[in-house]
Specification:
alpha+beta, 7-stranded mixed β-sheet, about 30% helix, globular
């Protein structure tokens, strides 16, 4: 059963008893998000979020507890909601802070988590939830309540937010250390508790959580595979639509429609769909150009599904007949760098290593293409390449597109890590150091790569979308013929 705590000076406090109860259909609306009872088409029994069980979230908290000192306190808060300018209307598709979602499975704002390690992986898990407001429910729907925080989210103790200052103050007063991020929402919780300065220097929590998130579980790997598969179908729809005369944003919308029909809740980032000169802009956003025969179309697009993201880039010819000779030369140079880096990826190698390798390959290709006004390969590698290859070869991938940023690109890869490989070349139309036939061509190829957990082999999650030049041309021809 559940009982109201008798702790003094704390109102609306709930504590987990030894006996666990199922979260009934009648009370599941108080969870504030889908449950297996309310959304059986999305969640299986035992799942806290689609594809992830309550046991998985519990293991994550236990893993964090093992990394923290005994009797310390860790505090992390949900992301604040954003609103349309000059309104109380929230932007659609609230996105949770990835660290908070990773530890709690909570997909809604207004919640704060406190973790208190005791010994080993034993810990006390407390959730602070908003007080129930009939008025807010009319405008924004039901939010998680104290009962759901205990039963569904499996907190050991829950409090309404009004009680948070006193509870945190007592916890921090007796703590050996306090872990939180003073540039995040947890700082607001500490400030509200009057403990922002009295608890001494805060210890950074984010690097500890990122170290856990960096290596993926089997369930996370499966979520990433399924996300990449949806993204690939989106690319198929985009390729079908990318005919001469079509507008770039129409191609973009075909991709977005497809991935959302396949379960994506949003795009992973603003898509880049650039034809002709748009392919030269790394973060091209206008997408208002009518595509022409003879263009190449560079599309960098990902989706978010079940809390994990994809990030794929392909470049293909718009018109019939495939790439021109000059386009093919640039494409083959980028493909060589992509293939070389993919073959070099293995445990013990870092993203920095792969970037240096991509610079080596592309520098030689640039010299062979006659780019650079007579620069040697050595001169190209010393910085000349940056004019044509201005970005790095990859980044970590997971719950965020640029995932776990506190894990440096110098970290050696290990089983379970996921990353991208995305070399590119971009030749401005007015650059006299580039042969005239190559000017105005931009090519990037990007795949999502995983180090498998069991064998540490390289798995190309986006491998269902070909990268070979002839294979790309055949795919474009085949999809448009349907």
């Amino acid at each position: 059963m559940w009982r109201r705590a008798t702790r003094p000076l704390v109102t609306h406090t709930w504590v987990r008893t030894a006996t666990a109860l199922s979260f009934s259909r009648a009370s599941s609306s108080a969870a504030g998000q889908p449950t297996p009872e309310t959304h059986p088409h999305l969640l299986c029994p035992g799942e806290l979020t689609a594809g992830f069980t309550a046991d998985e979230y519990r293991r994550r908290r236990c893993a964090l507890a093992r990394r923290l000192p005994v009797n310390s306190v860790a505090i992390i808060a949900a992301a604040l909601p954003a609103h349309l300018p000059n309104t109380i209307i929230p932007y659609p598709g609230y996105r949770q802070d990835a660290d908070f979602a990773y530890l709690t499975g909570m997909l809604q704002p207004g919640v704060v988590m406190m973790l208190q390690p005791q010994s080993g992986e034993d810990h006390r898990y407390t959730l602070f939830v908003p007080p129930r407001s009939k008025r807010d429910e009319v405008w924004n729907g039901a939010k998680v309540g104290t009962e759901a925080a205990l039963r569904f989210f499996e907190a050991d103790e829950t409090h309404e937010l009004l009680s948070m200052p006193g509870v945190i103050a007592r916890a921090v007063r007796n703590a050996t250390a306090v872990y939180a991020d003073d540039d995040g929402h947890a700082a607001v919780a500490l400030s509200a508790a009057g403990q922002m300065h009295s608890c001494g220097p805060l210890q950074a929590l984010r690097p500890l959580v990122h170290a856990l998130r960096w290596t993926k579980s089997p369930a996370e790997m499966q979520a990433l595979r399924e996300c990449a598969a949806a993204d690939i179908e989106g690319f198929h729809s985009a390729i079908r639509a990318s005919v001469p005369g079509a507008l770039e944003y129409q191609v973009c919308h075909q991709h977005e429609h497809t991935v959302k029909m396949l379960g994506a809740c949003r795009l992973a980032y603003p898509s880049v769909v650039g034809s002709g000169p748009g392919a030269l802009i790394v973060h091209y956003a206008a997408m208002d150009r009518a595509m022409q025969s003879g263009d190449v179309l560079l599309m960098d697009a990902g989706c978010e599904r079940r809390g994990y993201v994809s990030d794929i880039t392909r470049t293909w010819p718009v018109g019939e007949g495939g790439f021109t000779n000059a386009q093919a030369d640039v494409y083959e140079a980028v493909l060589e760098a992509h293939t070389t880096c993919l073959k070099a990826a293995r445990p013990g190698v870092s993203l920095q290593d792969l970037h240096r390798l991509s610079v080596d390959v592309l520098s030689e290709c640039l010299v062979n293409l006659g780019v650079g006004g007579g620069m040697s390969k050595t001169e190209m590698m010393r910085g000349g390449y940056q004019r044509y290859y201005p970005h790095s070869v990859g980044h970590w991938l997971g719950m965020d597109t640029h995932d776990t940023p506190t894990i440096t690109t110098g970290a050696q890869m290990q089983p379970g890590c996921v990353f991208t490989i995305e070399p590119g070349l971009y030749f401005p139309a007015d650059d006299l150091s580039v042969p005239k036939s190559l000017r105005g061509i931009g090519v990037r190829i990007e795949d999502d790569i995983a180090m498998t957990l069991d064998t540490a082999e390289v798995e190309v999650l986006s491998g269902g979308l070909p990268v070979g030049r002839r294979e790309v041309e055949a795919l474009v021809c085949g999809l448009r013929a349907r």
